[in-house]
Amino acid sequence: MVKDPRIEKLLNGFSKFVKEREIPLTQKEKRIKNRYTITGDIISYSICPRQYGFYKFLGYAPSNPTQEWYGSIIHRFLKRAHMSFLRTGRVVNDEEIERIFYLIEKSMEAEGIRATNERVKRSALEVLKKFCLIEGESFFRSVIEAELRLIKELDNFILYGIIDVLRTEGEKVEIWDYKGMERPDETTFYGREKLNRYKKQMYVYGFLFKERTGTFPDKAVLYFMNELLKGNLEKTRFIIDFRKEEIQNEVENFIEEFKRIVEEIEESQKTNNWRLPENIDKNTCKQCDFKWDCPHYWTS
Ligand code: SF4
Q: Fewer C-beta neighbours within 10 Å, C or N terminus of the chain?
């Protein structure tokens, strides 16, 4: 039972939002607006416009789904573990973790999403066991909502995002995003770039949250799950403090940048011209399905 009046206000805002979602957003204008997400569109486009355009609009499906499998099983598992906590009032034990994990794995297999090898599978299972052990009851008890879907109609498009977890830490409201990876290395250019992209992702979620509730969450937490495997607990959480004015200004600026990127995407789609990125790390190109005829790949 949530007693904090601020949290109650947020929950009321969400139930109103769920009702509003049932009304088509574009009803008044009779015009269909495209829907964009920060992860599926803006970040992918920012990494490589050419790769984004080929996957998104030219009908190619990624041939290397390892990352998709890993991220997906982590998210699906944690949602199920939270539901189990709500039902039983306790955190799942190792035996239950394995049972849930293999059930999810089977259903993913039926959808055609497979782990590339046993090592990846073992690593995901170990990460999840460690998460349940280390974050444990205090984490699951503090979750207000898992997979919170937020949407906002802007002038020319619809902005959409899914927050992995909305939780409280004492009096503070936090939004969390699980990352099935190690924390990017901030000592390198591409590590900083990557972390910056994830920060922007949380900026968008903070913005959507504010549009819905009238206030920013106190914090956003990027949780780098694979640091648990190395015992680097201090590196698991990267925190963004929305109470800082400079962060709120950065959010506003990024929403303007988001709008500009959407315009660029729509222009590229119209002309079917997807430009090459100015900078890109070699690993992304190595795993790219379109490298064989990519001028960037052969010259970098
Ligand atoms: S090889 Fe690299 S630059 Fe070329 S399309 Fe793929 S990701 Fe983009």
A: N
Pick the atom of ligand 1 nearest to 277's CA. Answer: 3
Centre of ligand 1 to C-alpha 49, Å, is 9
Question: Which of 134, 155, 172 delimits the end of a domain?
Answer: 134
Side chain identity at 208, as an amino acid letter?
A: L
What share of the chain has pLDDT > 70, as a percent?
87
Nearest CA, atom 7, ligand 1: 285
Q: Reduce the DSSP state of residue 85 to 3 states and report it.
A: helix
Q: Is 47 within a domain?
A: yes
Domain shared by 124 and 238, yes or no: no
Which of 207, 206, 214 lies closest to 239, judged by CA? Answer: 206
What are the CA-CA distances from residue 61 to residues 57, 64, 136, 160 (Å)? 10, 9, 37, 22
Residues of the chain with pLDDT under 70: 1-31, 61-66, 300
| pLDDT tens digits, 146-194 | 999 999 999 889 999 999 999 999 889 999 999 999 999 999 998 999 9
Q: Name all residues whose Cβ lies below 6 A of ligand 1.
A: 48, 50-51, 276-277, 280, 284-285, 288, 290-291, 294, 296-297
Residue indicated by tokens 């922007």: 200
Q: Where are the beta strands (DSSP E) in 191-247?
A: 219-224, 237-241
What span, in angstroms and rounded, lies between the C-alpha atoms of 163 and 208?
10
Main-chain dihedrals φ then ψ at residue 15, nearest 5 degrees = -70, -35
pTM for the full predicted model: 0.85
The CA-atom distances, in angstroms, between 163 and each of 74, 143, 195 are 14, 12, 17
258 and 185 share one domain: yes
pLDDT of residue 14: 58
Q: What are phi and psi of 113, to 5 degrees?
A: -105, 110
